[in-house]
Amino acid sequence: MSDNINLKRGLNVPIGGVAAQQIKKVIVADVVALKPTDFRGLVPKLLIHEGDRVLAGSPVMADKADLSILFTSPVSGTVKEIVRGEKRKLLEVRIEADKTVEYADFGIRDPKKLSADEIRDALLASGLWPGLVQRPYGTIANPNTTPKAIFISSFSTAPLANEVSFSLKDETENLQAGIDALSKLSNGEVHVSFNSKEEGKNPLKDLKNITAHYFSGPHPAGNVGIQIHHISPILKGETVWTVTPHILAAIGRFFRTGKLDLRRKVAVTGPKATAPSYIEAIAGFSMKAIADMCDSGDGDVRYISGDVLTGTNVGKEGFLGFFDDQVTLLAEGNYHEMFGWGKPFRSKKFSFSHTYFSWLTPNRKYAMDTNLNGGVRAFVMSDIYSKVLPMHLYPVYLAKACLAQDIDKMERFGIYEVLPEDLALCEYICPSKIEIQSILEDGIALMMKEMA
């Protein structure tokens, strides 16, 4: 089965700093961090103390709701620091890494010869299980349930996104092993979506035991949530699982080597990147390691783990997120512009609404920064969100239902189908500067609390 879905609505954000398809350097991390905040709804239970010795694959913490879900160290070394925030909330577990990684041995196994329970137990023990995300709500997959299907987006349309055709070009065997494992965890199919206009060779295209779908159109066409909406929408009471390509490769690598190996090619991008390119690094590496790739000469720089629309501002002292394969470097927009949008001509600014003349140069890339160009205004009714959201939903009504904490209306307007990342463009173009993703995050938290 295959199909071709052409999405018209959306927007490719024209930001400069795309990564050249070459490996700039290989990073040997001094310190890596495991961050519970990367996982929605997680209440962690620590299994180690400062000073403890760990191997790559040793348990570091567990999910209090289900202690079988383990989070393991991506490197070998010594637990250097346990970082807590307000009310002693666990923020990070920092591990001082060995120069040569020692791996816990889980044993080489062929997923084709394993049962679903054996695959589930292996992924839980390795710490790779949290890489499986369950929808609705975007939480860690429940190992005690069986999803109706598993969905994988093999491409990303996010600004300056990591190109899978380059970063996973040597991982075909690992990707196939990952598919062989995941296909046993669902009674349904493993759906893999491709970009029908992709120029490079996608390493997932030749995989077996998948159901292929083809999408074209601007961002967010590459979001797995958008693809699920058009392939098999999530109804109340249904669950599906999703996994990213680089986590899929790590799952396959685990079964083929018996080791937890979270190395990945990370795209270092953005207007403040001196030489946008790829690095090879471990999940959780410190942003200090790429300080030499950042142009910080004329002001402060924001280090974003992820893309500019949905990534996390981690700062120069921060660490790469568990799910991220991209770092974006932006200038901090901490300046005031006289007359602002009222200027008749602003050649260096992009405008979705044609306020400026950027629509005359559609192929131009802009050195965007973090300046909001104004403050929060009244949340007025408008159809502007629908222009960039290729889903059959009413995003303004959904956002207002979340603000009102009206669960019935949240269900009616599609809370089960979306995550904040799916409405990120709505926030980007919003004339009222409304933080839609934060509103939706609060709505999801309410649903998880009330519907548990």
From TrEMBL:
The keyword Transport applies. Residues 5-98 form the NqrA N-terminal barrel-sandwich hybrid domain. Its EC number is 7.2.1.1. Pfam families: NQRA_2nd, NQRA_N, NQRA_SLBB. GO terms for molecular function: oxidoreductase activity, acting on NAD(P)H, quinone or similar compound as acceptor. InterPro entries: NqrA (IPR008703), NQRA_2nd (IPR056148), NqrA_C_domain (IPR022615), NQRA_N (IPR056147). The keyword Ion transport applies. Residues 115-260 form the NqrA second alpha/beta domain. GO terms for biological process: sodium ion transport. It catalyses: a ubiquinone + n Na(+)(in) + NADH + H(+) = a ubiquinol + n Na(+)(out) + NAD(+). Keywords: Ion transport, NAD, Sodium, Sodium transport, Translocase, Transport, Ubiquinone. Residues 266-314 form the Na(+)-translocating NADH-quinone reductase subunit A C-terminal domain. Belongs to the NqrA family. HAMAP family: NqrA. NQR complex catalyzes the reduction of ubiquinone-1 to ubiquinol by two successive reactions, coupled with the transport of Na(+) ions from the cytoplasm to the periplasm. NqrA to NqrE are probably involved in the second step, the conversion of ubisemiquinone to ubiquinol. Composed of six subunits; NqrA, NqrB, NqrC, NqrD, NqrE and NqrF. This is Na(+)-translocating NADH-quinone reductase subunit A.
